[in-house]
Design brief:
Elements (H helix, E strand, L loop, with lengths): L4 E9 L3 E4 L1 H6 L1 H5 L5 H5 L9 H10 L12 E4 L6 H16 L8 E7 L9 H8 L4 E4 L6 H14 L6 E8 L16 E10 L5 E9 L7 E7 L5 E7 L3 H23 L9 E4 L6 H9 L10 H4 L6 H11 L8 E7 L4 E8 L4 E2 L11 E2 L1
Parallel strand pairs: 1-14, 2-15, 4-5, 4-6, 11-12
Antiparallel strand pairs: 1-7, 2-3, 6-7, 8-13, 9-10, 12-13
Length: 372
């Protein structure tokens, strides 16, 4: 019989600086005034040439945000000058280790996803291992916004072999440094980090079923290019292609249903058996889009987009952490976690929640933070 493995402890970490919509109103008033003609409006709009249930549902859920130049985004946590993705990751990892009552010497393997790492190439794994004082293996693993789930499944599979006892997974997102603030795409994105420990659990806890697939149809929706910023410095920027919105509308919910129902079936369960759902809520309407597509009660999920914006790979970790912290999920609850990543993977994992230790709650209210 395979041993039960899964999440033993979880933590999140965010920069202190909050960037509200007033930042763009103050510094880029012309951008805000003409946002309806810019890339954000063009890519996230209800226009479509195809008539199908997917595009109709997408249009319905997006409609309330069309009159807002920020498309519903409220706040983001942003790295300040001098802060780094490594520091975000290190602090999240140290808090997760403390919550699990483990030392760096107890970790046999660390899996790291940094979007994007400090050096671009190679990734942050070896650098972070040195920061933490780890003695074991440290690998970079990347599958865009589904990397946390891919890392969880990878860690559990490796632990089933008996080769590893404790695996530390660390993910970070620093989109703010790779999106031009004079591009409306910057309205959506923020920075953050998450970490969790994967260990052996009590029998019948941890991962029960999963399904992860590639998202080849979304290739090219977003891309990176080197350009000169306003200060004349060459930088890498994330850009959205002109057809990004159309690509998402056409395939988005197919990935959701395929992965979620596949993972539930592998776990030997039905949709009604799931107690709580965790998604990566990358834009304000994703949460309601997911719940309507699956036909579930919105009270059975959580959405932290209004606090953090699009934090990419960190989003499901933040939602899972906040759900546990607020007692929305408890021991023995059945949880379905679904994430979608363009040019990467979409995936769903069903877990039975165990005695999961939570890292200290990050300060997340703007009253306590520096506003940018």
């Amino acid at each position: 019989m395979l041993k039960s493995v899964g999440i033993r402890a979880i933590a999140v970490n965010f920069p202190e600086t909050v960037r509200t919509n007033n930042y763009w109103r103050k510094h880029y008033p012309e951008l805000v005034a003409t946002a309806g003609q810019k890339s954000l409006a063009k890519n996230f709009s209800p226009k479509t040439s195809a008539k199908n249930n997917t595009s109709d549902l997408w249009k319905q859920e997006m409609k309330p945000y069309l009159s807002d130049p920020f498309r519903g985004a409220v706040e983001r946590r942003i790295l300040a000058p001098g802060e780094s993705s490594l520091a975000l990751q290190r602090d999240a990892a140290e808090v997760a280790l403390k919550a699990a009552n483990l030392s760096p010497q107890d970790i046999d393997l660390m899996l790291v996803t940094s979007m994007f790492p400090e050096q671009i190439v190679p990734g942050d794994a070896a650098f972070l291992a040195g920061e933490l004082g780890l003695q074991g293996a440290a690998w970079n693993l990347e599958s865009t916004c589904t990397s946390a789930l891919v890392s969880l499944e990878t860690a559990c599979a490796l632990m089933q072999t008996g080769r590893y006892r404790n695996v530390l997974v660390v993910v970070s997102c620093t989109y703010s440094r790779f999106v031009d603030p004079n591009d409306t795409l910057s309205f959506l994105v923020g920075d953050g980090a998450g970490a969790f420990i994967v260990s052996a659990l009590d029998q019948n806890q941890g991962i029960l079923g999963s399904k992860i697939i590639h998202t080849n149809p979304t290739c090219g929706a977003f891309f990176s290019e080197f350009a000169v910023d306003r200060a004349g410095t060459p930088r890498m920027f994330i850009r959205a292609s002109q057809n990004a919105g159309k690509v998402f509308r056409n395939v988005f919910l197919n990935f959701l249903r395929d992965c979620c129902f596949g993972a539930i079936a592998e776990a030997g369960l039905n949709l009604e058996d799931i107690d709580f759902f965790v998604f990566n809520t990358l834009v304000p309407w994703y949460g309601s889009l997911f719940t309507r597509a699956l036909g579930i009660d919105p009270k059975r999920t959580i959405d932290t987009n209004s606090l953090y914006g699009n934090i990419g790979v960190v989003s499901p970790v933040a939602n899972l952490y906040h759900a546990a912290q607020s007692k929305k999920i408890c021991k023995d609850d059945l949880i379905l976690i679904y994430t979608f990543g363009a040019t990467g993977s979409a995936g769903a994992i069903v877990v039975k929640w165990g005695e999961v230790a939570l890292g200290a709650m990050p300060i997340a209210h703007p009253h306590y933070l520096r506003a940018a």
